[in-house]
């Protein structure tokens, strides 16, 4: 927003802010507040206001219809009573999520809000509430999941015409980025100005980065986050996506979280490391006292194998997502086999000490909504533990062709998702129905589009 000086706030709620906010403000008053929520796509929606207009206990509203839009902004008619009354839902600011907006012209904070109905209940279609619903199911069983996401993205030349191919940007050497330089420090340094800005912005927001690496694609970067509470980590991914985009713009380039932005480059994933603790003892239930893998770990793996197939639209939500998940892999397995230290499987058990035993879900795309992807992945593992399902045998070789591969199109994935009673029960039927309807509409909209490939190869040749 533009500079304003009349909206400064020194309200009592300032003392409740996280420490990183105080460091960012450095004694200066807050001038603007953004109250935000993640939409179905995982992007930020909300309101900006002068700080003296904000009180955490005030009632703020947004129309529920913002969840009735496709990614292109088209509204979708659904079987919802009085859908187009566009009733308001209540925003409840969560001050624990308050973070700086370092790229703003004036001292500005953003605060993530919970969404509730007017009678005080959780709004079923809110992605944050979907994740909380799953976490509540763990808590009821005396369990606490722990996750660590990996954020993969591409830097790209500013692409102002959607008909133009996406290309790597020019780095500090004056040359375009080139691929297959995974873990290259020189490749990271090539775009050091963007990475440095990400670090600076992250520090001001209190976001912790575990490590930064060059991935396999041209100008493809991976940021690893430290493990922790799933809601906190989902909030961090939500903030990081906006932060990375803004940091890229500061250097005159774009950042994209598309699953497959360039045809001949690897896709971008949000690999998710998962473990489960006993809330009483604090111990990792995936390991026995002697350090061996536990039955709970095997059941979690089996639940992932059985039910993740039903949740693929939450992990790969767009038509482009299925260009990443291919039999050839490129570190994006199209299977739900499991193995230790094997990157050709969808479910990998990384090398670790027994207390850190975890399962890495390698199927999730970076284009997914982090709240929904984490909720789906944890729900599947919990279902396996509840029903004590046995996993398939561990893969001992490279895995390429499998009998039960992941669906190759969004439409097929939606057909499977629609039939899964267990997943709908775990995530909430209201959310699942709205999500299904929106994704069906997006797929139909895409089917009406004429692509550059069709114009190039069919226009004069058929």
How would you characterize this protein structure?
The protein has 13 helices and 14 strands. It has helices spanning 19-25, 127-139, 185-190, 192-205, 230-250, 295-307, 312-315, 321-324, 370-387, 410-418, 421-427, 429-447, 452-458, and strands at 32-38, 44-50, 60-63, 88-93, 99-100, 108-116, 143-156, 209-214, 220-225, 254-256, 272-278, 338-340, 347-349, 359-361. Strand 1 (32-38) and strand 2 (44-50) form a beta hairpin. It is globular, with a radius of gyration of 22 Å. The model has no long low-confidence stretch (mean pLDDT 93).
Share of residues in strands: 15-25%
| Tally of individual helices | 13
Morphology:
globular
Major sheet: 8 strands, mixed
Structural class: alpha+beta
> Briefly, what CATH class of the largest domain?
Alpha Beta
CATH topology of the largest domain: Creatine Kinase, Chain A, domain 2
Helix content: 25-40%
Low-confidence stretches: none
Number of strands: 14
The name of the CATH superfamily of the largest domain reads Glutamine synthetase/guanido kinase, catalytic domain
Compact description:
With 462 residues, this protein is of the alpha+beta class.
From the structure above, extract its key features:
462 residues, alpha+beta, Ubiquitin-like (UB roll), Creatine Kinase, Chain A, domain 2, 8-stranded mixed sheet, 6-stranded mixed sheet, 14 strands, globular
